[in-house]
Design goal:
- By secondary structure, the protein is α/β, with parallel strands linked by helices.
- It folds into 2 domains: about 5-125, Rossmann fold (3-Layer(aba) Sandwich), CATH 3.40.50.720; about 125-280 and about 315-325, 2-Layer Sandwich (Dihydrodipicolinate Reductase, domain 2).
- The chain is about 35% helix and about 25% strand.
- The protein contains 11 helices and 14 strands.
- The strands form 2 sheets. Strands 8-9-10-7-11-12-13-14 form an 8-stranded mixed sheet, with helices on one face.
- α1 packs across α10 (about 280-300), α6 (about 130-140) runs parallel beside α9 and α9 packs across α11.
Length: about 325
Amino acid sequence: MTGRVRIALVGLGDIGVRAHLPALLREPRVELVALVEPEPGRRAAAARLAPDVPAHARLDDVLGEVDAVVLATPAWVTAELARTALAAGAYVLAEKPLAPGLEEQLAFRDAPGAADRLQIGLTYRHHPAIARLRELVVSGVLGTPLYVQSSLADERADPEGEPEHYARRLRTLEHGPPVVFDGIHRCDQLNLVLGAEPLEVTGWGLRSRPEYAAPNVNGALLSYADGTLVRLEVIWLYPALPPSQFVVTGPEGRVVIEPGTFELRAEIGGRVEHLPPPGDKTEVCFALQLERFVDACAEGRRPSPGLEDALAASALCARIAGAIA
């Protein structure tokens, strides 16, 4: 592929407008040729942020004009859109998860182009702090077994101040528990850092309001062959959320990643290592994700993380959801 990569952004909700759109507009190798969103109000709002980019209601209207598509859409519509774009020969960067259910995601192994042109938005695995944590774990300097404390609490309940966001989270709960939609980031990071699947998964759930369609608090204990234990929690929809946490402790040291910024601090053998964040976590991760996607498009190679990475993360999420149920 020569010249800039022509991309359409599909889905102009919060994550599309707040994260994907700025990354696309900043990347010099991208020509953003279309915005796609069925809801007219969102199209109009996004058009004000990118006034020179045509806005359309349907993906089919733009497929002939693009090399690639970024899908910032809800999981229950992403799979069909991804299949359509792949069938048209486009590269696809799809928000996670690809579909609410694992079976529908597994079916993508038979989708033409999915193995070679599909990247999944496991966005935060791209951060330098995650890469450094993996290096420390793989090198063995922390020792084994490890004890991992991983909690994710970032979807606050504010029905009056953020009614659209609250309604979106309620709709999401109708399709499954938070670990499936939000916990997939931590499940992917655990797979990447630990390099193994847990032998056993036990889980629990808590529904803080009876009207919620699924437990809004999900917890699990994961045990691994080398004795490593992971305590994982995903917490949604409290007006005041508890702090998130990502701590990896071994017999020889400890690594703490501050969830809000991904600042890393390690204490190993009396030595302290500090890896300050290179910038805003969301901006950095979405920029790196897009950079690697554009590399794959321009070079005609498989993007990463691809379908198998996403299936592994979703399989772990499904095990936890099953244990909760």
